[in-house]
Design a protein that fits this description.
This protein is an alpha/beta fold and 169 residues long. Helix content is 38%, strand content 11%. The structure holds S-adenosylmethionine (SAM). InterPro entries: Tsr3-like, Tsr3_C.
């Protein structure tokens, strides 16, 4: 797994830097280092991640972009022409900064959720359990993650998501 790091976060609270220090992810500051065809977790697009992206993630890589939420629209543009950009379906954050907020996941929550949905459940659990609040993220979202994992296509993930959306979203 690769994190493109924008250096605009608080380094003490940055989950990507912590994951890198633990040897769990590769870190780069250069968009050119992201492999062509990689699956990029991008909260600004419409197409949802699903098992259909599993081969691309395995062969080309799974990528998150660690930047501040205020600047999230700036960083994905340069990759969009050559990578598969995917949004995660409805999930709730359990990290201390955004606890309880829908869809605003930390970088490591996003990567763990992606692993889970792509069918790498054990790897997702091992990865997120390295963080104090990781197991809480899984418990809070277990039913949703299981349902998304079972969906075969992006369209099906979106259909399944409808069941979990609170009224008005
Ligand atoms: C905006 S950064 C914030 C990072 C935060 N400062 C941290 O320390 O974890 C979170 C990144 O995780 C991924 N991500 C988070 N929520 C997502 C979602 N709902 N859909 C797709 N990707 C998401 C994206 O790559 C996003 O840029």
């Amino acid at each position: 797994m690769i994190v493109l790091h924008a250096r605009d976060c608080d380094p003490k609270a940055c989950t990507a830097l912590r994951a890198h220090r633990m040897g769990l992810v590769e870190l780069t500051r250069h968009p050119g280092d992201v492999p062509t065809g990689a699956v990029v977790l991008d909260p600004t697009v419409e197409k949802a991640l699903s098992r259909e992206d599993r081969d691309a993630a395995l062969e080309r890589g799974l990528v998150a972009v660690d930047c501040s939420w205020e600047h999230v629209h700036r960083y994905f543009g340069p990759l969009r022409r050559r990578c598969r950009h995917r949004i995660l379906p409805y999930l709730i954050a359990a990290n201390p900064v955004n606890y309880g907020k829908p869809c605003k996941l930390s970088t490591v929550e996003a990567l763990a959720a992606a692993l889970y949905i792509l069918g790498f459940r054990r790897e997702a659990e091992e990865f997120i359990s390295r963080f104090k609040w990781g197991p809480a993220f899984l418990e809070l979202n277990r039913e949703r993650l299981e349902a998304y994992r079972r969906a075969e296509t992006s369209a099906e993930v979106v259909r399944v998501q409808e069941e979990f959306l609170p009224d008005g979203l």
